């Protein structure tokens, strides 16, 4: 096992820069998830760590050694692909032992390792089957088994759950987490699914347009996003962004959302934002769970307002309500018993203790 | 209709009903519909393939003047002739050697073409297919001139290295070599294009997985490419074996079977004894000998194809 480091790594395809100078340190035993939308450079980054793509600039280090020009087979890594990439003509056991056989491991050791990995992944009964005879989830386990038997320095996962149905994806997510708890191998995991990223990672790396937007624990990213992109990408339904401006009103700082609606900021927030210029170019970031039905027991910092709901989505444990504020579409989460109805007026409460204020032009969270 | 049936008494009614349901069932069955849909093709094949096949079996049982039934007489006559056994041997050597090298060269060239960037690949594919698209009767004439012992480009070139002149088509071994060489030149592009298509169907991720598993380029070919292409290799080889075994034009134009019948293969020898020797029944007997040999080859080659087909 080893740490992995990326230093100003760049990948260019002709004139297009897919990855634009990435710096990343991954500690030994750590589970890192690279997450971002399609084309953000996350898979390219993973493939550069694997050695499947040459790097155009910068350095990649595994276990302290620069591996820029080391072929994949000598990097001591194992990779799990999105479509599993199992050899269709080999049995499960042959698939899992292929790497060890190429390295001329003793037969007894190969057998022991395959048996152990099969036991760990609960695929002992499938060991003599061909990939064609397996379900998607089973194939995914075999692909993981093939990685585990090698006992590599680093595991690389390239969107491994994308081909599975929603229920199986949740199951396999838990399996992957359990396996990592047992083998503790340094893992780099690529996904476009922010739920996967949040649930699996020790630290999440959010990427956008070939750059890293933010690195942090799932909670840090959720509660303290650094940019509008991260704030909008992490969390489902996504954070609401409402154009707003700061105003001084009778010695207190208030935030104006529309001509009708302006709220006084709670003291902690007021102190934090007081030095900001009183311009229009601001966005209020508020997550749907901080826009709830109004009731009498709110503490300080929670402001209520009246609105007309456009659409409601009952989810069982909660109801999502959609409405507009001066043309900006907004989503809130209310109690299923709060009486939210399509087209009906409703009094909602906004918890300003959990608000974010963003610079509209730069997208930076202030 | 129900009223009419009622008048006819219970037994007839039941029989009618049974008959019409079973007919309706039969017509409704997918396999029956499929059979009727393919019937025109089956009839066409029967007309174009079965009739000549049966007719040639019939011919093979007649005497030279085609007046008398001689049973296996023609075959027994052939078994006693050394030339026949030489033709059997030469046909096998010709077909097996040519198919082996066509497959080998086709595989190697397909690999090279596969690795050419997509932009230039089309051009190379087109150029490499040229031998296969020129009618062999014409291209073999060009080879005939290249093999000319006195004025040919081959002997002229070799003379610079102090070699030759080689009697390409007059010497027993060189003549055999030459007909095989031309057959390989003509047939290798077919293998190349088939293998190229097969190579393109192997997912890149398998090679990437193999690279990470520690395979070098040769191990990738041995453990990934070849197993993934096994079916196409088997079917292409069988198809080419049949065509090569039945080859006529190349040998006919280059050597006409000479020197001393040494390069004759089944088709050219059947032509010689049947048409030139005016013994059609004996010619038919010679050509019928290809059937058991190819049948055995087909069984061996296709043995595992259907089983392997289920893996991918």
The CATH architecture of the largest domain in chain A is: 3-Layer(aba) Sandwich
Give the helix proportion of chain B (percent range).
over 70%
The biggest beta sheet of chain A, please? 6 strands, mixed
Number of domains of chain A: 2
Q: Give the overall pLDDT of chain B as a whole number.
A: 82
Strand content of chain B: under 5%
Query: Which class of the largest domain in chain A in CATH terms?
Result: Alpha Beta
Indicate the structural class of chain B: mainly alpha
What is the CATH homologous superfamily assignment of the largest domain in chain B? Answer: MetI-like
Global mean pLDDT of chain A: 89
Order of SSEs of chain B, N→C?
Answer: HHHHHHHHHHHHHHHH
Largest sheet of chain B: none
CATH architecture of the largest domain in chain B: Orthogonal Bundle
Which characteristics define this entry?
A: 366 residues, alpha+beta, Rossmann fold, OB fold (Dihydrolipoamide Acetyltransferase, E2P), 2 domains, six-stranded mixed sheet, five-stranded antiparallel sheet, 9 helices, 34% strand, elongated, B: 312 residues, mainly alpha, 0% strand, MetI-like (chain B), transport (chain B), membrane (chain B), cell membrane (chain B)
Description:
Chain B: Belongs to the binding-protein-dependent transport system permease family. Chain B: Keywords: Cell membrane, Membrane, Transmembrane, Transmembrane helix, Transport. The complex is a heterodimer of chains A (366) and B (312). Chain A is built from 9 helices and 21 strands. The model of chain A has no long low-confidence stretch (mean pLDDT 89). Chain A starts with a strand and ends in a 7-residue tail after the last strand. Chain A has a 6-stranded mixed sheet with strand order 6-7-8-3-9-10, sandwiched between helices. In chain A, strands 13-12-11-14-21 form a 5-stranded antiparallel sheet. Chain A has 366 residues and is an alpha+beta fold. Chain B is 78% helix and 0% strand. Chain B has 16 helices and no strands. Classes of the chains: A alpha+beta (366), B mainly alpha (312). The interface between A and B is medium-sized, with 25 and 22 residues.
């Amino acid at each position: 096992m080893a740490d992995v480091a990326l230093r100003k790594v760049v990948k260019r395809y002709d004139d297009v820069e897919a990855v634009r100078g990435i710096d990343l340190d991954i500690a030994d035993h750590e589970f890192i998830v690279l997450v971002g939308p399609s084309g953000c450079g996350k898979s390219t980054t993973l493939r550069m760590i694997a050695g499947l793509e040459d790097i155009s600039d910068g350095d990649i280090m595994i276990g302290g050694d620069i591996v820029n020009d080391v072929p994949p087979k000598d990097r001591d890594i194992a990779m799990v692909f999105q479509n599993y990439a199992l050899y269709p003509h080999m049995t499960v056991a042959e698939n899992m032992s292929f790497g060890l056989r190429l390295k001329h491991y003793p037969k007894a050791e190969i057998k022991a390792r395959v048996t152990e990995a099969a036991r760990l992944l609960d695929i002992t009964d499938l060991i003599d089957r061909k990939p064609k005879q397996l379900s998607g989830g089973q194939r995914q386990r075999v692909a993981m088994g093939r990685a585990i038997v090698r006992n590599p320095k680093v595991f690389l996962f390239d969107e491994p759950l994308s081909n599975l149905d929603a229920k199986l994806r949740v199951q396999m997510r838990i399996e992957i987490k359990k396996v990592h708890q047992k083998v503790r191998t340094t893992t780099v995991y690529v996904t476009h699914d922010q739920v996967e990223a949040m649930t699996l990672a020790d630290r999440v790396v959010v990427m956008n347009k070939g750059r890293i937007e933010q690195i942090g624990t799932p909670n840090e990213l959720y509660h303290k996003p650094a940019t509008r992109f991260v704030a909008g990408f992490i969390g489902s339904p996504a954070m609401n962004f409402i154009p707003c401006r700061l105003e001084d009103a009778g010695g207190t700082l208030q935030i104006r959302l529309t001509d009708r609606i302006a709220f006084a900021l709670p003291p902690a927030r007021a102190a934090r934002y007081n030095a900001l210029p009183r311009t229009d170019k601001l966005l209020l970031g508020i997550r749907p769970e901080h826009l709830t039905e109004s009731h009498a027991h709110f503490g300080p910092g929670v402001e209520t307002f009246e609105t007309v709901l456009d659409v409601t989505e009952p989810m069982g444990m909660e109801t999502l309500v959609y409405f507009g504020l001066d043309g900006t579409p907004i989503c809130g989460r209310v109690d299923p018993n709060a009486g939210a109805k399509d087209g009906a007026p409703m009094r909602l409460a906004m918890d300003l203790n959990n608000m974010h204020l963003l610079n509209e032009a730069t997208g930076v969270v202030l | 209709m129900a009223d009419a049936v009622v008048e006819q008494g219970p037994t007839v009614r039941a029989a009618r009903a049974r008959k019409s349901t079973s007919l309706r069932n039969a017509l409704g069955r997918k396999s029956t519909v499929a059979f009727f849909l393919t019937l025109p093709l089956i009839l066409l094949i029967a007309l174009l393939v079965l009739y000549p096949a049966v007719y040639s079996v019939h011919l093979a049982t007649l005497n030279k003047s085609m007046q008398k039934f001689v049973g296996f007489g023609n075959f027994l006559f052939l078994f006693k002739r050394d030339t026949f056994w030489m033709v059997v041997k030469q046909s096998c050597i010709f077909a097996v050697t040519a198919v082996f090298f066509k497959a080998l060269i086709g595989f190697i060239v397909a690999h090279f073409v596969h690795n050419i960037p997509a932009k230039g690949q089309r051009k190379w594919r087109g150029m490499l297919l040229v031998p296969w698209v020129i009618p062999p009767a014409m291209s073999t004439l060009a080879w005939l001139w290249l093999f000319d012992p006195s004025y040919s480009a081959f002997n002229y070139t070799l003379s610079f290295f102090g070699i030759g002149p080689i009697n390409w088509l007059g010497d027993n071994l060189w003549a055999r070599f030459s007909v095989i060489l031309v057959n390989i030149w003509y047939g290798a592009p077919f293998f190349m294009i088939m293998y190229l298509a097969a190579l393109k169907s192997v997912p890149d991720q398998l090679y990437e997985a193999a690279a990470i598993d520690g395979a070098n380029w040769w191990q990738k070919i041995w453990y990934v490419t070849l197993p993934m292409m096994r079916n196409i290799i088997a079917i292409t080889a069988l198809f080419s074996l049949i065509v090569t075994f039945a080859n006529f034009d190349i040998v006919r134009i280059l050597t006409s079977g000479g020197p001393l019948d040494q390069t004759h293969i089944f088709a050219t020898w059947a032509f010689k004894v049947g048409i030139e020797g005016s013994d059609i029944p004996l010619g038919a007997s010679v050509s019928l000998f290809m059937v058991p040999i190819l049948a055995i080859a087909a069984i061996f080659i296709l043995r595992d194809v259907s089983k392997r087909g289920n893996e991918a």
